[in-house]
Design a protein that fits this description.
mainly alpha, 2 domains, two-stranded antiparallel sheet, 18 helices, about 65% helix, globular
Length: about 475
Protein backbone atom coordinates (compact mmCIF):
# COMPACT_ATOMS: atom_id res chain seq x y z
CA UNK A 1 0.00 0.00 0.00
CA UNK A 2 1.28 3.44 -0.85
CA UNK A 3 2.52 5.60 2.05
CA UNK A 4 0.20 8.60 2.18
CA UNK A 5 1.34 9.93 5.57
CA UNK A 6 4.05 12.20 4.10
CA UNK A 7 1.79 14.25 1.86
CA UNK A 8 -1.83 15.50 1.82
CA UNK A 9 -4.43 13.20 0.30
CA UNK A 10 -5.86 16.08 -1.71
CA UNK A 11 -4.25 18.91 -3.69
CA UNK A 12 -4.06 22.31 -1.97
CA UNK A 13 -7.19 24.45 -2.36
CA UNK A 14 -9.23 21.47 -3.58
CA UNK A 15 -12.74 21.11 -2.15
CA UNK A 16 -12.97 17.60 -0.71
CA UNK A 17 -16.59 16.77 -1.77
CA UNK A 18 -15.92 17.94 -5.35
CA UNK A 19 -12.66 15.99 -5.42
CA UNK A 20 -14.37 12.79 -4.29
CA UNK A 21 -17.16 13.20 -6.85
CA UNK A 22 -14.64 13.75 -9.67
CA UNK A 23 -12.66 10.63 -8.72
CA UNK A 24 -15.85 8.57 -8.40
CA UNK A 25 -16.86 9.58 -11.92
CA UNK A 26 -13.44 9.23 -13.54
CA UNK A 27 -12.19 5.97 -12.02
CA UNK A 28 -14.58 3.75 -14.04
CA UNK A 29 -13.49 5.59 -17.18
CA UNK A 30 -9.85 5.11 -16.21
CA UNK A 31 -10.35 1.38 -15.59
CA UNK A 32 -12.02 1.07 -19.01
CA UNK A 33 -9.17 2.92 -20.74
CA UNK A 34 -6.62 0.61 -19.13
CA UNK A 35 -8.06 -2.22 -21.24
CA UNK A 36 -6.42 -2.02 -24.65
CA UNK A 37 -9.50 -3.44 -26.34
CA UNK A 38 -11.25 -0.24 -25.26
CA UNK A 39 -9.78 1.58 -28.26
CA UNK A 40 -11.25 -1.09 -30.55
CA UNK A 41 -14.68 -0.77 -28.94
CA UNK A 42 -14.65 3.01 -29.31
CA UNK A 43 -13.44 2.75 -32.90
CA UNK A 44 -16.15 0.31 -33.94
CA UNK A 45 -18.79 2.33 -32.09
CA UNK A 46 -17.75 5.46 -33.98
CA UNK A 47 -18.00 3.58 -37.29
CA UNK A 48 -21.47 2.29 -36.41
CA UNK A 49 -22.65 5.79 -35.51
CA UNK A 50 -21.33 7.12 -38.82
CA UNK A 51 -23.06 4.41 -40.87
CA UNK A 52 -26.41 4.93 -39.13
CA UNK A 53 -26.15 8.72 -39.31
CA UNK A 54 -25.21 8.76 -43.01
CA UNK A 55 -28.19 6.58 -43.91
CA UNK A 56 -30.72 8.26 -41.61
CA UNK A 57 -33.20 11.06 -42.41
CA UNK A 58 -30.52 13.44 -41.10
CA UNK A 59 -27.85 12.31 -43.55
CA UNK A 60 -27.45 15.82 -44.97
CA UNK A 61 -26.22 17.09 -41.61
CA UNK A 62 -23.55 14.36 -41.65
CA UNK A 63 -22.32 15.45 -45.08
CA UNK A 64 -22.41 19.15 -44.22
CA UNK A 65 -20.47 18.66 -40.99
CA UNK A 66 -17.37 17.25 -42.67
CA UNK A 67 -17.53 19.85 -45.44
CA UNK A 68 -17.27 22.68 -42.91
CA UNK A 69 -14.45 25.00 -43.99
CA UNK A 70 -11.55 25.25 -41.55
CA UNK A 71 -8.79 27.82 -42.03
CA UNK A 72 -5.29 27.35 -40.64
CA UNK A 73 -2.67 30.04 -41.11
CA UNK A 74 -0.19 32.52 -39.68
CA UNK A 75 -0.22 36.14 -40.80
CA UNK A 76 -0.70 36.44 -44.53
CA UNK A 77 -0.20 32.71 -45.09
CA UNK A 78 -3.31 30.61 -44.64
CA UNK A 79 -5.13 27.73 -46.23
CA UNK A 80 -8.79 26.78 -46.07
CA UNK A 81 -9.83 23.13 -46.35
CA UNK A 82 -12.86 21.06 -45.33
CA UNK A 83 -12.87 19.55 -41.86
CA UNK A 84 -12.75 16.12 -43.52
CA UNK A 85 -9.39 17.02 -45.06
CA UNK A 86 -7.84 18.10 -41.76
CA UNK A 87 -8.92 14.83 -40.14
CA UNK A 88 -7.79 12.50 -42.94
CA UNK A 89 -4.63 14.28 -44.01
CA UNK A 90 -3.79 16.14 -40.79
CA UNK A 91 -4.69 14.19 -37.66
CA UNK A 92 -4.06 10.81 -39.27
CA UNK A 93 -0.47 11.89 -39.86
CA UNK A 94 -0.05 11.65 -36.09
CA UNK A 95 -1.42 8.10 -36.21
CA UNK A 96 1.09 7.19 -38.91
CA UNK A 97 3.83 8.84 -36.84
CA UNK A 98 3.03 6.49 -33.94
CA UNK A 99 3.06 3.50 -36.30
CA UNK A 100 6.40 4.63 -37.76
CA UNK A 101 7.86 5.00 -34.27
CA UNK A 102 6.75 1.51 -33.28
CA UNK A 103 8.14 0.00 -36.45
CA UNK A 104 11.44 1.87 -35.95
CA UNK A 105 11.80 0.45 -32.44
CA UNK A 106 11.07 -3.05 -33.68
CA UNK A 107 13.61 -2.68 -36.48
CA UNK A 108 16.31 -1.46 -34.08
CA UNK A 109 15.80 -3.81 -31.16
CA UNK A 110 12.68 -5.90 -31.68
CA UNK A 111 11.26 -8.66 -33.82
CA UNK A 112 12.15 -6.86 -37.06
CA UNK A 113 15.81 -6.32 -36.15
CA UNK A 114 16.65 -9.59 -37.88
CA UNK A 115 16.71 -9.05 -41.65
CA UNK A 116 15.17 -12.44 -42.33
CA UNK A 117 12.21 -11.50 -40.14
CA UNK A 118 11.96 -8.02 -41.61
CA UNK A 119 11.63 -9.62 -45.04
CA UNK A 120 8.44 -11.40 -43.99
CA UNK A 121 6.08 -8.39 -43.71
CA UNK A 122 7.51 -6.97 -46.93
CA UNK A 123 6.77 -10.17 -48.83
CA UNK A 124 3.39 -10.58 -47.12
CA UNK A 125 2.39 -7.03 -48.04
CA UNK A 126 3.42 -7.53 -51.67
CA UNK A 127 1.40 -10.75 -51.87
CA UNK A 128 -1.50 -9.04 -50.10
CA UNK A 129 -1.52 -6.33 -52.77
CA UNK A 130 -0.86 -8.40 -55.90
CA UNK A 131 -3.34 -11.25 -55.44
CA UNK A 132 -6.37 -9.02 -54.64
CA UNK A 133 -5.67 -6.99 -57.77
CA UNK A 134 -5.59 -10.22 -59.82
CA UNK A 135 -8.84 -11.41 -58.23
CA UNK A 136 -10.48 -8.12 -59.16
CA UNK A 137 -9.18 -8.40 -62.74
CA UNK A 138 -10.68 -11.90 -62.95
CA UNK A 139 -14.14 -10.32 -62.57
CA UNK A 140 -13.33 -7.11 -64.47
CA UNK A 141 -10.84 -7.87 -67.26
CA UNK A 142 -11.71 -4.81 -69.38
CA UNK A 143 -13.98 -1.82 -69.73
CA UNK A 144 -14.93 0.98 -67.35
CA UNK A 145 -15.02 -1.33 -64.33
CA UNK A 146 -11.40 -2.50 -64.79
CA UNK A 147 -10.03 0.76 -63.35
CA UNK A 148 -10.99 -0.37 -59.85
CA UNK A 149 -8.21 -2.96 -59.56
CA UNK A 150 -6.47 -0.88 -56.88
CA UNK A 151 -9.48 -0.79 -54.55
CA UNK A 152 -8.99 -4.20 -52.83
CA UNK A 153 -5.23 -3.74 -52.43
CA UNK A 154 -5.25 -1.59 -49.27
CA UNK A 155 -5.55 -2.49 -45.59
CA UNK A 156 -7.11 -0.08 -43.12
CA UNK A 157 -4.66 -0.02 -40.20
CA UNK A 158 -7.06 1.59 -37.72
CA UNK A 159 -9.83 -0.97 -38.14
CA UNK A 160 -7.45 -3.92 -38.55
CA UNK A 161 -5.67 -3.15 -35.29
CA UNK A 162 -9.01 -2.53 -33.58
CA UNK A 163 -10.34 -5.95 -34.61
CA UNK A 164 -7.07 -7.68 -33.66
CA UNK A 165 -7.22 -6.00 -30.26
CA UNK A 166 -10.61 -7.61 -29.60
CA UNK A 167 -8.89 -11.00 -29.58
CA UNK A 168 -7.09 -9.86 -26.42
CA UNK A 169 -4.58 -12.29 -24.86
CA UNK A 170 -4.73 -14.66 -27.80
CA UNK A 171 -2.58 -12.26 -29.81
CA UNK A 172 1.19 -12.44 -29.15
CA UNK A 173 3.06 -9.15 -29.41
CA UNK A 174 5.08 -10.22 -32.51
CA UNK A 175 1.80 -10.99 -34.32
CA UNK A 176 0.60 -7.44 -33.72
CA UNK A 177 3.95 -6.08 -34.91
CA UNK A 178 3.68 -8.24 -38.03
CA UNK A 179 0.26 -6.76 -38.79
CA UNK A 180 1.48 -3.21 -38.19
CA UNK A 181 4.55 -3.70 -40.37
CA UNK A 182 2.52 -5.40 -43.09
CA UNK A 183 -0.18 -2.71 -42.98
CA UNK A 184 2.21 0.21 -43.18
CA UNK A 185 4.10 -1.37 -46.09
CA UNK A 186 0.71 -2.06 -47.64
CA UNK A 187 -0.24 1.60 -47.23
CA UNK A 188 3.04 2.73 -48.77
CA UNK A 189 2.32 0.44 -51.71
CA UNK A 190 -1.22 1.80 -51.98
CA UNK A 191 0.08 5.36 -51.97
CA UNK A 192 2.56 4.48 -54.74
CA UNK A 193 -0.30 2.98 -56.73
CA UNK A 194 -2.33 6.15 -56.24
CA UNK A 195 0.60 8.34 -57.27
CA UNK A 196 1.53 6.26 -60.34
CA UNK A 197 -1.86 5.15 -61.65
CA UNK A 198 -4.52 7.42 -60.14
CA UNK A 199 -2.86 10.84 -60.24
CA UNK A 200 -1.73 13.27 -62.91
CA UNK A 201 1.93 13.33 -61.87
CA UNK A 202 4.41 14.61 -59.32
CA UNK A 203 5.15 18.26 -58.60
CA UNK A 204 8.91 18.82 -58.51
CA UNK A 205 8.67 21.65 -55.97
CA UNK A 206 6.83 19.39 -53.55
CA UNK A 207 9.43 16.64 -53.84
CA UNK A 208 12.17 19.21 -53.23
CA UNK A 209 10.38 20.29 -50.06
CA UNK A 210 10.16 16.66 -48.92
CA UNK A 211 13.90 16.30 -49.45
CA UNK A 212 14.48 19.50 -47.45
CA UNK A 213 12.40 18.13 -44.60
CA UNK A 214 14.35 14.86 -44.55
CA UNK A 215 17.63 16.82 -44.54
CA UNK A 216 16.33 18.90 -41.62
CA UNK A 217 15.46 15.72 -39.73
CA UNK A 218 18.96 14.35 -40.29
CA UNK A 219 20.58 17.63 -39.21
CA UNK A 220 18.57 17.68 -35.99
CA UNK A 221 19.76 14.16 -35.21
CA UNK A 222 23.37 14.99 -36.01
CA UNK A 223 23.51 18.04 -33.72
CA UNK A 224 22.04 16.02 -30.86
CA UNK A 225 18.46 17.28 -30.70
CA UNK A 226 16.49 14.68 -28.78
CA UNK A 227 13.07 14.75 -30.39
CA UNK A 228 9.87 15.58 -28.67
CA UNK A 229 8.51 18.76 -30.13
CA UNK A 230 11.73 18.77 -32.19
CA UNK A 231 9.94 16.41 -34.57
CA UNK A 232 7.36 19.06 -35.47
CA UNK A 233 9.40 21.24 -37.93
CA UNK A 234 10.57 18.39 -40.23
CA UNK A 235 7.13 16.76 -39.98
CA UNK A 236 5.38 19.95 -41.14
CA UNK A 237 7.88 20.50 -43.97
CA UNK A 238 7.64 16.90 -45.24
CA UNK A 239 3.84 16.90 -44.88
CA UNK A 240 3.52 20.11 -46.89
CA UNK A 241 5.91 18.82 -49.55
CA UNK A 242 4.04 15.55 -49.99
CA UNK A 243 0.76 17.44 -50.26
CA UNK A 244 2.15 19.70 -52.97
CA UNK A 245 3.75 16.74 -54.73
CA UNK A 246 0.39 15.00 -55.06
CA UNK A 247 1.28 12.18 -52.66
CA UNK A 248 -0.87 11.32 -49.64
CA UNK A 249 0.68 13.56 -46.94
CA UNK A 250 0.07 11.18 -44.02
CA UNK A 251 3.14 9.24 -45.14
CA UNK A 252 5.11 12.12 -43.60
CA UNK A 253 4.35 10.56 -40.21
CA UNK A 254 5.97 7.30 -41.27
CA UNK A 255 9.05 9.06 -42.65
CA UNK A 256 9.59 11.07 -39.48
CA UNK A 257 8.82 8.08 -37.25
CA UNK A 258 11.39 5.94 -39.03
CA UNK A 259 13.91 8.79 -38.73
CA UNK A 260 13.50 9.19 -34.97
CA UNK A 261 16.31 7.83 -32.71
CA UNK A 262 15.33 4.55 -31.11
CA UNK A 263 18.15 4.29 -28.54
CA UNK A 264 18.23 5.96 -25.13
CA UNK A 265 20.92 8.48 -24.18
CA UNK A 266 21.71 7.49 -20.59
CA UNK A 267 19.68 4.30 -20.21
CA UNK A 268 18.71 2.60 -16.97
CA UNK A 269 22.06 2.79 -15.17
CA UNK A 270 22.53 6.43 -16.14
CA UNK A 271 19.07 7.23 -14.85
CA UNK A 272 19.81 5.63 -11.48
CA UNK A 273 23.09 7.55 -11.12
CA UNK A 274 21.67 10.94 -12.10
CA UNK A 275 18.50 10.40 -10.08
CA UNK A 276 20.47 9.55 -6.93
CA UNK A 277 22.66 12.63 -7.37
CA UNK A 278 19.61 14.83 -7.91
CA UNK A 279 17.86 13.43 -4.85
CA UNK A 280 20.99 13.97 -2.72
CA UNK A 281 21.19 17.60 -3.87
CA UNK A 282 17.48 18.05 -3.26
CA UNK A 283 17.76 16.58 0.25
CA UNK A 284 20.75 18.81 1.05
CA UNK A 285 18.86 21.93 -0.08
CA UNK A 286 15.84 20.99 2.04
CA UNK A 287 18.07 20.33 5.08
CA UNK A 288 19.54 23.83 4.74
CA UNK A 289 16.06 25.32 4.61
CA UNK A 290 16.49 26.64 1.06
CA UNK A 291 13.54 28.20 -0.70
CA UNK A 292 11.81 26.72 -3.74
CA UNK A 293 14.14 28.44 -6.23
CA UNK A 294 17.09 26.42 -4.92
CA UNK A 295 15.20 23.21 -5.69
CA UNK A 296 14.85 23.98 -9.40
CA UNK A 297 18.34 22.74 -10.38
CA UNK A 298 18.05 19.22 -8.89
CA UNK A 299 14.51 18.94 -10.26
CA UNK A 300 15.81 19.85 -13.73
CA UNK A 301 18.46 17.15 -13.37
CA UNK A 302 15.80 14.65 -12.35
CA UNK A 303 13.64 15.66 -15.33
CA UNK A 304 16.58 15.18 -17.69
CA UNK A 305 17.29 11.74 -16.23
CA UNK A 306 13.63 10.76 -16.56
CA UNK A 307 13.44 11.96 -20.16
CA UNK A 308 16.68 10.45 -21.44
CA UNK A 309 16.30 7.08 -19.72
CA UNK A 310 14.01 6.21 -22.65
CA UNK A 311 14.64 6.45 -26.36
CA UNK A 312 12.95 9.37 -28.17
CA UNK A 313 10.96 6.86 -30.24
CA UNK A 314 9.46 5.19 -27.16
CA UNK A 315 8.97 8.50 -25.35
CA UNK A 316 7.07 10.17 -28.20
CA UNK A 317 5.08 7.02 -28.95
CA UNK A 318 4.00 6.74 -25.31
CA UNK A 319 3.02 10.42 -25.15
CA UNK A 320 0.86 10.15 -28.29
CA UNK A 321 -0.65 6.71 -27.71
CA UNK A 322 -3.69 7.85 -25.72
CA UNK A 323 -4.49 10.72 -28.07
CA UNK A 324 -4.36 8.41 -31.09
CA UNK A 325 -6.21 5.43 -29.60
CA UNK A 326 -9.02 7.33 -27.93
CA UNK A 327 -9.20 10.51 -29.98
CA UNK A 328 -7.81 10.50 -33.50
CA UNK A 329 -8.80 6.98 -34.55
CA UNK A 330 -12.47 7.21 -33.45
CA UNK A 331 -12.80 10.67 -35.01
CA UNK A 332 -11.32 9.32 -38.22
CA UNK A 333 -13.83 6.45 -38.21
CA UNK A 334 -16.72 8.82 -37.55
CA UNK A 335 -15.69 11.04 -40.48
CA UNK A 336 -15.13 8.22 -42.99
CA UNK A 337 -17.40 5.30 -42.14
CA UNK A 338 -20.59 7.10 -43.16
CA UNK A 339 -21.05 5.57 -46.60
CA UNK A 340 -24.54 6.37 -47.89
CA UNK A 341 -26.46 3.72 -49.80
CA UNK A 342 -29.21 6.05 -51.01
CA UNK A 343 -30.09 5.78 -54.70
CA UNK A 344 -27.92 2.76 -55.52
CA UNK A 345 -29.00 0.91 -58.67
CA UNK A 346 -28.81 -2.74 -57.59
CA UNK A 347 -28.30 -5.09 -60.53
CA UNK A 348 -27.37 -2.35 -62.98
CA UNK A 349 -24.53 -2.49 -65.49
CA UNK A 350 -21.25 -3.42 -63.84
CA UNK A 351 -22.92 -3.98 -60.46
CA UNK A 352 -22.02 -7.62 -59.91
CA UNK A 353 -18.50 -7.56 -61.45
CA UNK A 354 -17.47 -4.61 -59.29
CA UNK A 355 -19.20 -5.89 -56.16
CA UNK A 356 -17.72 -9.38 -56.47
CA UNK A 357 -14.31 -8.10 -57.55
CA UNK A 358 -13.96 -5.81 -54.55
CA UNK A 359 -15.47 -8.20 -52.01
CA UNK A 360 -13.61 -11.31 -53.17
CA UNK A 361 -10.41 -9.33 -53.61
CA UNK A 362 -10.42 -8.26 -49.97
CA UNK A 363 -11.97 -11.30 -48.28
CA UNK A 364 -10.28 -14.01 -50.35
CA UNK A 365 -7.39 -12.34 -52.19
CA UNK A 366 -5.85 -10.65 -49.14
CA UNK A 367 -5.42 -13.69 -46.88
CA UNK A 368 -4.51 -15.91 -49.82
CA UNK A 369 -1.85 -13.52 -51.07
CA UNK A 370 -0.39 -12.96 -47.61
CA UNK A 371 -0.25 -16.67 -46.82
CA UNK A 372 1.23 -17.67 -50.18
CA UNK A 373 3.88 -14.95 -50.18
CA UNK A 374 4.81 -15.62 -46.54
CA UNK A 375 5.06 -19.37 -47.11
CA UNK A 376 7.20 -18.84 -50.20
CA UNK A 377 9.83 -16.58 -48.57
CA UNK A 378 10.00 -18.82 -45.49
CA UNK A 379 10.27 -21.94 -47.66
CA UNK A 380 13.09 -20.35 -49.68
CA UNK A 381 14.92 -19.35 -46.51
CA UNK A 382 14.63 -15.63 -47.25
CA UNK A 383 12.56 -14.88 -44.15
CA UNK A 384 11.64 -16.45 -40.83
CA UNK A 385 8.46 -16.36 -38.78
CA UNK A 386 8.72 -14.13 -35.68
CA UNK A 387 8.97 -15.87 -32.28
CA UNK A 388 5.58 -17.03 -31.08
CA UNK A 389 3.99 -16.68 -34.54
CA UNK A 390 2.99 -19.75 -36.53
CA UNK A 391 0.96 -20.24 -39.67
CA UNK A 392 -2.29 -19.98 -37.72
CA UNK A 393 -1.30 -16.47 -36.60
CA UNK A 394 -0.27 -15.55 -40.15
CA UNK A 395 -3.64 -16.78 -41.41
CA UNK A 396 -5.52 -14.62 -38.91
CA UNK A 397 -3.36 -11.63 -39.86
CA UNK A 398 -4.31 -12.30 -43.49
CA UNK A 399 -8.01 -12.27 -42.62
CA UNK A 400 -7.69 -9.05 -40.61
CA UNK A 401 -5.79 -7.45 -43.51
CA UNK A 402 -8.91 -7.95 -45.63
CA UNK A 403 -10.40 -4.92 -43.87
CA UNK A 404 -9.76 -2.31 -46.54
CA UNK A 405 -12.30 0.31 -45.54
CA UNK A 406 -11.02 3.89 -45.57
CA UNK A 407 -8.03 3.61 -47.90
CA UNK A 408 -10.07 1.36 -50.19
CA UNK A 409 -12.84 3.96 -50.25
CA UNK A 410 -10.26 6.65 -50.98
CA UNK A 411 -8.90 4.70 -53.95
CA UNK A 412 -12.43 3.99 -55.17
CA UNK A 413 -13.11 7.74 -55.25
CA UNK A 414 -10.15 8.10 -57.61
CA UNK A 415 -10.80 4.97 -59.67
CA UNK A 416 -14.44 5.48 -60.62
CA UNK A 417 -15.78 8.57 -62.36
CA UNK A 418 -19.21 6.97 -62.67
CA UNK A 419 -21.04 7.62 -59.38
CA UNK A 420 -23.08 4.44 -59.76
CA UNK A 421 -19.98 2.25 -59.96
CA UNK A 422 -18.47 4.21 -57.09
CA UNK A 423 -21.48 3.41 -54.93
CA UNK A 424 -21.21 -0.29 -55.81
CA UNK A 425 -17.50 -0.28 -54.95
CA UNK A 426 -18.24 1.29 -51.57
CA UNK A 427 -20.93 -1.32 -50.93
CA UNK A 428 -18.41 -4.05 -51.71
CA UNK A 429 -15.91 -2.48 -49.33
CA UNK A 430 -18.51 -2.37 -46.53
CA UNK A 431 -19.48 -6.01 -47.08
CA UNK A 432 -15.84 -7.11 -47.25
CA UNK A 433 -14.98 -5.17 -44.09
CA UNK A 434 -17.79 -6.79 -42.13
CA UNK A 435 -17.04 -10.29 -43.43
CA UNK A 436 -13.28 -9.97 -42.89
CA UNK A 437 -13.73 -8.63 -39.35
CA UNK A 438 -16.15 -11.41 -38.33
CA UNK A 439 -14.03 -14.08 -40.02
CA UNK A 440 -10.89 -12.84 -38.27
CA UNK A 441 -12.59 -12.81 -34.86
CA UNK A 442 -14.04 -16.31 -35.31
CA UNK A 443 -10.79 -17.72 -36.71
CA UNK A 444 -8.78 -16.04 -33.96
CA UNK A 445 -10.91 -17.53 -31.21
CA UNK A 446 -10.86 -20.96 -32.85
CA UNK A 447 -7.19 -21.13 -33.88
CA UNK A 448 -5.26 -19.02 -31.38
CA UNK A 449 -4.64 -20.19 -27.84
CA UNK A 450 -4.73 -18.04 -24.71
CA UNK A 451 -1.12 -18.91 -23.82
CA UNK A 452 -0.07 -15.33 -24.55
CA UNK A 453 -2.27 -14.06 -21.70
CA UNK A 454 -1.89 -10.40 -20.88
CA UNK A 455 -0.17 -9.47 -24.11
CA UNK A 456 -2.97 -7.28 -25.37
CA UNK A 457 -5.59 -7.57 -22.68
CA UNK A 458 -4.42 -4.57 -20.71
CA UNK A 459 -2.30 -1.55 -21.43
CA UNK A 460 1.28 -1.40 -20.29
CA UNK A 461 2.27 1.05 -17.58
CA UNK A 462 3.52 3.49 -20.20
CA UNK A 463 0.29 3.23 -22.15
CA UNK A 464 -1.68 3.76 -18.96
CA UNK A 465 0.36 6.88 -18.28
CA UNK A 466 -0.42 8.23 -21.74
CA UNK A 467 -4.15 7.65 -21.33
CA UNK A 468 -3.97 9.35 -17.95
CA UNK A 469 -2.31 12.33 -19.62
CA UNK A 470 -5.14 12.53 -22.15
CA UNK A 471 -7.95 12.44 -19.64
CA UNK A 472 -6.21 14.55 -16.98
CA UNK A 473 -7.01 12.05 -14.26
CA UNK A 474 -4.39 10.73 -11.83
CA UNK A 475 -4.01 6.96 -11.51
CA UNK A 476 -6.34 5.47 -8.96
CA UNK A 477 -4.52 4.89 -5.67
CA UNK A 478 -4.00 1.26 -4.62
CA UNK A 479 -6.71 -0.32 -2.57
CA UNK A 480 -6.21 -0.41 1.17
Amino acid sequence: MADRSSHPTNPPEAWLPARRLALALLRPVERFLHIEAASGFILLAAAAVALVWANSPWHLSYEHLWETAVTIGVGSWSTTRPLHFWINEGLMTVFFLVVGLEIKREIVEGALSNMRRAALPIAAAMGGMGVPALVYFAFNPAGATSTGWGVPMATDIAFAVGVLTLLGPRVPAPMRVLLLALAIIDDIGAILVIALFYSTGFAAMGLAMVAAGVVLLVILKQIGVRPGWGLAPPLVVIWTGLLQAGVHPTIAGVIVGLGTPARSWIGREGFLTLARNALDRFQAQVARGADEHALIAPLHQMAFARREALSPALRVETALHGWVAFGIMPLFALANAGVTLHGMAIGGEGFWPVLLGVTAGLVVGKPLGILLASWLVVRLGIAALPPGVGWREVGVVGLVAGIGFTMAIFIAELAFVDQGLLGVAKLGILIATAVAAVAALLAGRALLSRQHGGGLDTLSDSDAESSTAVWGCPPAPPAD
